[in-house]
Specification:
Blueprint: E1 2-6, H1 17-26, E2 30-35, H2 40-46, E3 58-60, H3 62-65, H4 71-84, H5 86-100, H6 102-118, E4 122-125, H7 128-134, H8 137-141, E5 144-149, H9 152-155, H10 166-171, E6 174-177, H11 180-188, E7 197-199, E8 223-228, H12 237-249, E9 254-259, H13 265-275, E10 281-285, H14 289-298, E11 301-304, H15 313-320, E12 325-328, H16 333-336, E13 343-346, H17 351-363, H18 365-382, H19 385-400
Parallel strand pairs: 1-2, 1-4, 2-3, 4-5, 5-6, 6-7, 8-9, 8-11, 9-10, 11-12, 12-13
Length: 412
């Protein structure tokens, strides 16, 4: 089966990388990716372990490439497509011309021609926002369509527009959600009953996320607390700083490491100064995956004060590294972190309770160790790449069956 996955940028991070590697290596699918950018630096940063030959499986939008150094080669390829697929090209132009005019219609065809040329049996939009923009491809290609919802698309995208996803709900053949919370949000945003879906969480490669720490710290010795993620408002890192400052006031000892960069840095610097904790907070900025793993390996607790999450890969990676996770009870995090077993959940925005959990873990290194082991065992049991690929395979087979109503029920 020929499957084409559509994603904004690849491989920007690990969100869709394990799925790509699993399907390409399985040999059961002709699996390819279409994206709007695929910088060589991202391959070296996120996917250096993947064989270089797989890069040929990733196609970049012609509309982006036409303005790059490969202008001539891209123009020749586009003209070749127009000559070999005149009917498909004309149908595409006729669809868009009345809506956006001739010039933009040609630009849209340049953007889409590699997707049309691939002629997939199944088109998988990895984010709901991309499906809104390009759901028309289903009729042009006469193919099946699967749409993934991962968080931003349901939690933030055009919340004022109740009908934004209506064409997607009506035309897509199947849906993928990271967890139950996102499924419920989809229903609130108009997804009708009876639609085919599967709940498939992210996957964690335990070989890549494997702790090497051995010594158990003494009770009440200083600990390393780490947060990983973009410095943006929804990550709630000011709550993390408030919780850490309260933890220190209670008598706790340690250092707070923030890994990532983003527009909230100035605000966070202000909090650090105002709270008087400058000597105990370290901003590491953007780090490579290996550097992030090294910091997790040196840490004792993973603090994740995000106020909105689809599921959260960072918390999964921390658990794989045997770190207890302290976070808010929001979005998909309660499906990810088990309260009292692999970490602690606090009521949303209750940073004081978060501080109490930090203090409890500081006092009790045996508890930290046990929660860490529980977390890694749970990652191995429920979130392996093999399980993820098998679940997507079942979804793909279901929506492409001659009678989808008789195959692949909606497991939870």
């Amino acid at each position: 089966m020929k499957v084409l996955s559509i994603v904004q940028s690849f491989p920007e991070n690990v969100v869709t990388l394990s799925k790509f590697q699993g399907f390409v290596e399985s040999g059961h699918y002709d699996y390819r990716v279409f994206c709007w950018k695929s910088p060589p630096s991202d391959w070296e940063l996120w996917a250096a372990h993947i064989p270089r030959k797989y890069r040929a499986k990733v196609m970049v939008s012609g509309a982006n490439r036409i303005f790059s150094r490969s202008f001539l080669a891209e123009t020749i390829r586009f003209l070749g497509f127009l000559m070999t697929e005149p009917g498909l090209s004309l149908r595409h132009l006729k669809y868009h011309f009345p809506k956006i005019g001739a010039i933009r219609a040609v630009h849209r065809l340049l953007d889409d021609y590699k997707i049309l040329q691939a002629k997939p049996a199944l088109l998988h939009f990895e984010f709901g926002t991309n499906a809104v923009e390009k759901i028309y491809l289903k009729k042009l290609l006469d193919c099946r369509v699967v749409v993934s919802f991962r968080g931003y698309d349901l939690n933030f995208f055009q919340l004022e527009n109740d009908a934004v996803y209506q064409p997607v709900w009506e035309q897509a053949d199947g849906f993928h959600f990271l967890g139950q919370d996102l499924l419920e949000k989809a229903r609130l945003r108009g997804m009708p009953d009876g639609k085919r879906y599967r709940l498939i969480p992210p996957a964690i490669d335990l070989e890549r996320f494997s702790p090497t720490r051995t010594a158990l710290a003494e009770a009440k010795s200083p600990i390393n607390i780490v947060s990983v993620g973009r410095l943006v408002w929804k990550k709630g890192l000011h709550f993390g700083l408030l919780a850490f400052a309260e933890f220190l006031k209670k008598g706790g000892k340690g250092t707070y490491h923030l890994v990532g960069e983003g527009p909230a840095r100035e605000e966070l610097d202000y909090y650090v100064r105002e709270l008087g904790i400058s000597t105990q907070v370290i901003f590491h900025g953007k780090r490579s995956p290996q550097q992030v793993r090294d910091l997790l390996n040196q840490a004792d607790v993973f603090l994740h004060p995000s106020i909105s999450e689809g599921f959260c890969n960072a918390a999964m990676e921390a658990q794989a590294m045997e770190l207890p996770v302290v976070c808010f009870e929001t979005g998909g995090l309660p499906e990810n972190v088990l309260h009292g077993e692999t970490g602690f959940l606090s009521p949303l925005r209750d940073w004081s309770m978060m501080a109490q959990h930090l203090y409890e873990l500081w006092e009790n290194p045996t508890l930290r160790q046990q929660m860490g082991k529980n977390g890694r065992e749970r990652m191995a049991r429920f979130f392996s790449p093999e399980m993820q690929i098998a679940a997507f395979d079942a979804l793909y087979q279901s929506v492409c069956a001659k009678d989808p109503s008789n195959s692949c029920p909606n497991p939870t």
